[in-house]
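User: My advisor, Dr. K., asked me to get a structural model of this assembly before our group meeting. I'm new to this, so sorry if the format is off. These are the inputs:
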Amino acid sequence: MSATELLQLFFDPELFERYGARMLDGLLVTAKLVAISFSLGLLLGLLLALGRLSRNSMLRGATGAYIYFFRGSPLLAQLFMLYYGLGSFRELWQDLGLWWFFRDAWYCSLLAFTLNTAAYQAEILRGSLQAVARGQHEAAAALGLSRRTTFFKVILPQSMLLAVGPLGNELILMVKASAIASLVTIYDLMGITKLAFSRTFDFQLYLWAALLYLLIVEVIRRLLRRIEMRLGRHLDT
Amino acid sequence: MLSTSSQTGALAPTPGLAQAVPRSRPAVEIQGMSKWYGAFQVLHDIDLSVQPGERIVLCGPSGSGKSTLIRCINRLEIAEQGRILVEGCDLSKVTTQAVKVRREIGMVFQHFNLFPHMSVLDNCSLAPTSVHGLSRKAAEERARHYLAKVGIENQADKYPSQLSGGQQQRVAIARALCMQPRIMLFDEPTSALDPEMVSEVLDVLVKLADSGMTMLCVTHEMGFARQVAQRVLFLDGGRIVEDSPPETFFNAPKSPRAQAFLTQILH
Ligand SMILES: Nc1ncnc2c1ncn2[C@@H]1O[C@H](COP(=O)(O)OP(=O)(O)OP(=O)(O)O)[C@@H](O)[C@H]1O
Ligand SMILES: [Mg+2]
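Assistant: The format is fine. Below is the predicted structure of the whole assembly, which you can bring to the meeting.
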């Protein structure tokens, strides 16, 4: 086998010309899907974490059940349940004026990913909020700080330093898990790759896709390191 | 806003006339206070009256309830029984009042409990801005004033982790003073420090005592107690078993427990 033949096996310029740009489009769809659902999941996750730490036992129970359910069942099942399951109550949604949402695979994917990652992020945030030393709460109370100020100015910033690593891992897991959106007709990176493969039966498309996922993950890793350094700047002497 | 020390100074008893403190409304009055941790009773029926400007040292063996006692005064712990009046206000009745009363009471902890993610200046100006509603500028001015009082104005822009233990504890004192409290509680403020840093913190405490601040201090620094305290309380098993002026306490302790305790820590 000559060198050009070997190269042809991993990088066929003709194939690249045909599908390269579309795969980059798919990459953008993946990035958008993950970015939006991760951010919404962070907000929801923070609320859930506060619910878990609340003094109200009803709230603790309800948020606990939510987290238990979404962490305990497969994301794929959750996505199908939303898109095919809830999507089958067409008349109900039409009456409620929500059919535009549940008919759309994009919205259903966003919702499923948001609900799922929120459960994981809630546990990360709860752990990191609890890990802030008790003395910090006491110092804030002794100064007469309100609960709100104590949370936003004293506890949350310190817990974020602890949370940022695990949250980054969750983000990376989500990038990879987002590939299942392709199963409900989303043309994300994996969706495009599958489509292209079904037409060419050339496995190198999957190799490219893998490398592109790797690229996102690498970018996230680097960003994360910067954020960690910034949040932890008070620890350097 | 920088005239606080002179204001509190006006309340101060004349040095040497410690016993002649006018019997005005007590700064802190504890009546029949008992506290339990689960089934374990930590404090037994505590009665204590602290006059404005009075300086009290609490000592006693480990586990005797010293920390719990002073933490009940600013409601970091809630006593199940009895009354605590701070400047006449009954803390055990009205929980919402606790926040207000806490503004009158500053506390310094054994392990400083500074906010590690904030600069020294921000540590000191957070509460004045968010609780007293001061502008950032005014709060920083106040912070610098008290940082100067504890002798670390030039560290204002550092983070706590960049300071020595003694410096951190002085920041913690300045942070508490920035709320311009009328009563200061100290829970073993020097026992987490390296020996060579103890005196810099004690010096600040002595200065604060001279300014007329009402102080309750848990400490085993007996030299400090002799120099500064007007009363020494000795706790044992959750009871105040001795309450005397330092001369009496050190030279002629009444209870055998206090005698044993003193021989132990003075060798
Ligand atoms: N949160 C808590 N839960 C249960 N028991 C506690 C708690 N805090 C303190 N105790 C117990 O209450 C008793 C008094 O504790 P406290 O901290 O007031 O003692 P102390 O006199 O300050 O001792 P030390 O000199 O060691 O600081 C101890 O027996 C301690 O084990
Ligand atoms: Mg203690």
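One thing worth pointing out at the meeting: Chain A is about 80% helix and 0% strand.

User: Perfect, thanks a lot.
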